[in-house]
Design brief:
This protein is an alpha/beta fold. It folds into two domains: about 1-185, VC0802-like; about 190-425, 3-Layer(aba) Sandwich (Rossmann fold), CATH 3.40.50.150. The chain has 15 helices and 17 strands. The strands form two sheets. Strands 9, 10, 11, 12, 13, 14, 15, 16 and 17 form a nine-stranded mixed β-sheet that branches. The protein has an eight-stranded mixed β-sheet with strand order 2-3-1-4-8-7-5-6. The mean pLDDT is about 95. S-adenosylmethionine binds near residues 232, 239 and 332.
């Protein structure tokens, strides 16, 4: 079965999360083609799309592809698909069974970002509309806002395309063209609620977007329902809330009393709003450098955390300030990773985000030394299988196997690592 997944802005993180989720669920897959915006995959089984969509922070749409065509380099999708759409096919394969006035849209994703198929979506939508109108069907076509070739998840949702008709999707490469329909889109309203409707927000210390928290949890390996995940720098509790949303138990700690208070408020709000059973989280005020001594011995299955960023800068900090901050952070993380060793069984993972400061040409100043990871017998895992990073050069995995998540409006970016505690047979340090 062929599927296309539309990836979020930080597409390397989105792809890593998706492939790791398949690995955790034991879903086999083959990557057929990949571009920054879209990945086409083949799976031997039908996917539980609704469940996947709700659990993947980095996937914007999931599309089922029905047909594949050979395509000559410069051929337009409307030429390749000439005579493909018939009244029967549109109604049986593409449209929902809605009986009122149908609404549909056409999005074209290019597997070659240098090739844009401008106006092609409109052309194909017009062909389809004509076929339907000839059969006296009343339909409305929703078109992307120029110059986009694709409908945003907001347009698909607001126009109820999946309920009232379809979003028909074309994924076009240089030699192949895939056609199918969208099965699900990300619930942007719900992510907004989980972010902005929380009662206690701390913009000063920084809050992780729920989508990124979800992606980090998905990178933490196979954690079963009701197992424990620890965030020892929990701040206002974003990771803990997403842990609970996944049906897991959350243990949070922070050095700051105010942060614990915020987490408590937010998690109670979350529990009520999302109908989570009581007793699914516990909070402790403790320095992460002593966390093993102060939290009771829960069987922790993963540590997922946005570590402290150091001082909060409202402007781009001077190089000397960054260097001092990094020195202090390395000292702290040396202790913290020793502590994690006491908590985490061999083979289990720490997914952590560390600060990185953008300076120029898209380059970052990041923690200069990661000895605190290797000296304690942990390994940094490849976030994406190496054969894929070798084939798809646009994937942005750093030489030290991290992925940078950044936002234009923020001084500090997040460098995300998947770190595995050594398996017993590897422990020769
Ligand atoms: C970047 S914030 C985490 C934000 C959180 N991910 C959220 O979305 O709300 C880092 C947190 O680390 C805490 N912190 C700083 N030093 C710490 C230490 N030594 N031990 C534990 N927590 C610490 C700060 O109080 C702050 O709440």
């Amino acid at each position: 079965m062929l599927y296309a997944f539309i990836l979020g802005r930080v597409y390397t993180l989105s792809l890593a999360e998706l492939l790791e989720t398949f690995a955790n669920q034991g879903v086999e897959y083959k990557v057929i083609s990949c571009a920054p915006e879209v990945v086409v995959l083949e799976t031997p089984v039908e996917l539980n799309v609704e469940k996947l969509q709700g659990s993947l922070g980095g996937v914007i749409k999931i599309i089922r592809l029905f047909d594949v065509f050979k395509k000559k380099g410069k051929e337009y999708p409307s030429q390749v698909l000439d005579n493909y759409f018939t009244f029967k096919r549109i109604n049986s394969d593409y449209f929902s069974k809605y009986t009122g006035k149908k609404q549909f849209g056409v999005s074209i994703y290019s597997l070659d970002p240098a090739v844009k198929y401008r106006e092609e979506g409109g052309r194909i939508a017009f062909q389809i509309k004509k076929i339907l109108q000839e059969q006296a069907q009343s339909v409305r076509a929703v078109l992307p806002h120029f110059p986009a070739n694709t409908l945003s998840s907001v347009l698909v949702s607001e126009n109820q395309l999946l309920q009232k008709g379809a979003e028909i999707v074309i994924v076009a490469g240089t030699q192949r063209l895939f056609v199918g329909k969208t099965l699900s889109v990300q619930n942007y309203e719900d992510y907004g609620r989980r972010d902005y409707q929380r009662p206690a927000r701390d913009e000063h210390a920084g809050m992780l977007p729920p989508k990124v928290a979800q992606a980090m949890i998905n990178l933490a390996g196979n954690i079963l329902p009701l197992e424990y995940v620890l965030d020892p720098f929990c701040g206002s509790g974003t990771i803990l809330q997403e842990v609970m949303l996944k049906g897991l138990r959350a243990i949070g700690s922070d050095i700051d009393e105010h942060a614990i208070h915020n987490s408590e408020k937010n998690l109670e709000w979350f529990r009520n709003r999302y109908h989570v059973a009581p007793g699914r989280y516990k909070l402790f005020q403790v320095n992460a450098a002593e966390v093993s001594l102060h939290i009771p011995r829960f069987p922790i299955k993963a540590i997922v955390t946005e570590g402290t960023l150091g001082p909060v800068y409202g402007r781009v900090p001077k190089k000397s300030e960054i260097n001092q901050n990094f020195k202090d952070l390395v000292k702290l993380y040396e202790q913290v990773f020793k502590e994690f060793k006491k908590i985490l069984s061999p083979g289990l993972r720490v997914v952590i985000s560390l600060p990185a400061y953008k300076h120029k040409n898209d380059e970052y100043d990041s923690l200069p030394n990661l000895d605190f990871i290797t000296q304690n017998g942990y390994t940094v895992l490849d976030p994406i299988p190496q054969d894929l990073t070798a084939k798809y050069k646009f994937l942005k995995v750093t030489p030290r196997q991290s992925i940078i998540y950044d936002r234009k409006d923020q001084v500090v970016a997040r460098e995300i690592f998947i770190i595995q505690n050594a398996k017993i047979k590897d422990q020769n340090f």
